[in-house]
Amino acid sequence: MDPRFLKINELFINYSQGNFDYRVDLSPELDDIDAFISNINMLGEELKATTISKNYFNNIFNSVSDIIFIMEKNGKMRDINSAGYALFGYCPAKPDEMNIFDLFQNKDGLTVFQKQLLQSHSVVNMRTKLKDKNGKAIECMISANKMEDKGVGMVGYQGIIKDMTKEKETENLVIRTIVDTQEQERERFARDLHDSLGQQLSGIKFFLATLKKMDLSSGKKHDELLSKSEAAINNAAVDLRSICFNLMPRALENFGLSHAITELCRKMEAEGSLSFIISISKNFPPLNKPLEIAIFRIVQEFINNSIKHGKASEVKITMKSSSEILNITLQDNGVGFDSTSLNKFEGMGLKNVRSRVGSYNGDVKIESVVNRGTRYYLKIPL
Asked: H helices of 17-155, where?
């Protein structure tokens, strides 16, 4: 049980008694509960600084996006904010017509919730499905605790209902993106093996089969086939190294991100694809391996897009860091696109970039101008 809910309860009790100087300190987590505590602390400041009227309090009460409710022992509502009316569709003038127990999608969930309310001496937290105003089941998190009146005892419950639908949608999107990325990588790997290494091995097999049938005395033609076989083996080895580099660059494993990106750019320049301007600050720190891999893949994705979609001839890579944040800028001089229609271009690997950066609580800003190139700004907290 999170002890912060007890502090929230104390905060409400003090405010109800007119003690608006009472405050609750935020925890190191700085999560949704802390955001809610911060809002209530700010409410105390507003209540202290302003002549309070019932309407003024209701305006603040109803501005909270999560559902705040006060209910009796039997589940009947005493009060609920606007977010609750909007989700469940009850008349704001008659909160007592609403019973939270009627909102549960299944009886088993209701039974567990009621049992926990009766037995718990602290906050009850439960994830369950409730019915919205259209009868649709939605995933919710309910947090509730007992309200007590001195001399009377327990008079009801107060709590919060959080609609988890958007969070669930975000989780599903991340899962789909991961699966799609894995499938794309498998497809690319299979294509690389077939188109390069597979063709080289087929050629070597043909040369060897021909040599087997030839008479050793055939001289020049025999030596020519041996030379072709040797060249094909060398090419196969080069292709194999290239495939291994794309899967997991050895430079990244052995020497870190800066060296791996520099090697990637040199490799692309050697192939004649692009020219590069690389600027990596001397104080750019070593990172944990998963983050280094994520940044490397983003750079790799940007370069591939610059070649395939941007038709660029030059790419600039700038990597800087402070004590708190990584700043990475990727820029090309390609054909660009209309950034006001960015959603149309999400298939160009941008979803993968967003999901990789988002998984580290980072931010991506994308700018592009037709015929003037594309730029990514990445900020990733350390």
From this structure: 32-49, 54-63, 82-88, 107-119
Contact 120, 149 (CB under 8 A): no
The 10s digit of each residue's pLDDT in 359-372 is 788 888 888 888 88
Backbone angles phi, psi at 145, to 5 degrees: -145, 165
| Residues forming beta bridges with residue 146, ordered by sequence position | 157
Calpha distance 382→377 (Å, rounded): 16
Domain with residue 41: its CATH number is 3.30.450.20
> Are 278 and 315 spatial neighbours (Cβ–Cβ below 8 Å)?
no
| pLDDT bucket at 245, cuts 50 / 70 / 90 | low
Q: Are residues 143 and 191 in the same domain?
A: no
Distances (CA, A) of 78 to 25, 97, 142, 147, 158: 29, 9, 17, 12, 10
Contacts 24+ apart (CB under 8 A), 132-138: 132/87, 132/88, 132/89, 133/87, 133/88, 133/89, 134/89, 137/105, 138/87, 138/163, 138/164, 138/165
Provide φ and ψ at 53, rounded to 5°: -120, 160
- 308 membership: H or E segment, kind and range: helix 289-308
- Chosen domain end from 105, 136, 165: 165
Range of the structural domain that residue 108 is part of? 4-165
Examine the domain organization and report whether 45 and 79 are in the same domain: yes
For residues 261 and 242, membership in a common domain is answered with no
pTM: 0.46
Total Cβ atoms within 10 A of residue 246 = 14
CA distance 271 to 255: 23
- Find the distance separating the first CA and the last CA of the chain, reported in whole Å: 30
Distance in angstroms (rounded) separating the CA atoms of residues 347 and 350: 6
The residue ranges of DSSP E strands in the chain, in sequence order, are 67-71, 77-80, 124-131, 137-149, 153-163, 275-280, 314-321, 325-332, 363-369, 373-381
Return the structure tokens found at 58: 């209701």
Phi-psi region of 303 (alpha: psi -120 to 50; beta: other; left: phi over 0): alpha
Do 362 and 381 form a contact (C-beta atoms < 8 A)? Answer: yes
Look up the CATH number of the domain holding residue 379: 3.30.565.10
